[in-house]
């Protein structure tokens, strides 16, 4: 894939801890659009703190990405690692108003982290909201006990009666990606030191094909590589995967999941165009 880098979409980006220069570099290496999920892995988060984070994402972080030339959207929800002891109903009551401006496209991240009773109850409540509002859903799966907890998560998703194609189950790996796809969901391969390497993602796409597989980065949480998605696309090209396959996992499947149209690289504004 010589010449200009392929266009990329990142369905799991946390720009809060990235500099403006990082975002500019990512744009130059192909990042066309990003989904920013609510993510606050802190103990005893309060409902007020969670709602303040939603406002921070929508009012500060999405405009930062847009200024860097990256189309920006959000996923808002209660991460299983920060379910408030009190006030979950307050957060769920506040959520619908965020889905009215066209920038918040999904509920997320939600899911199970340790698969306890409180987590499962919170997931069921949020999925009921997603079904009522006809929302897309971004689902977290943990590093520890990934296969077991992914299977439990898929059971809860099945019981929710949400359309499988409206759900992306993130942080899939070699033991879970096929199961996720067989359930009809999108599967996120997170190119991150804690999750999946570019080499492993390349091998999985070679083996399973490109249908409903999405590359994302999880950047902004712990160590990561701001060029991880671009490097993976390059690895796939060197491994002999076709341009069509690379475009599907790097761009088209993500746009299809979000139900958005993305311009070609030549149509995207430069910083000078926006000045």
Structure description:
The chain has 275 residues and is an alpha/beta fold. The protein contains 10 helices and 8 strands. It has one domain (8-274): Metal-dependent hydrolases (TIM Barrel). It has helices spanning 20-28, 47-67, 88-94, 117-133, 146-160, 177-182, 198-208, 228-238, 243-258, 271-274; strands spanning 8-10, 31-37, 71-76, 104-111, 136-140, 167-169, 186-190, 213-216. It is globular and about 50 Å long.
Question: What's the short story on this structure?
Answer:
Helix content is 43%, strand content 15%.
* Uncertain residue ranges: 266-275
Rg, alpha carbons: 18 Å
What is the CATH class designation?
Answer: Alpha Beta
The amount of beta strand, in percent, is: 5-15%
Main sheet: which strands, in order across? 1-2-3-4-5-6-7-8
Count all strands and give the number. 8
Write down the domain tally: 1
Q: Which geometry do the CA atoms define?
A: globular
Largest sheet: 8 strands, parallel
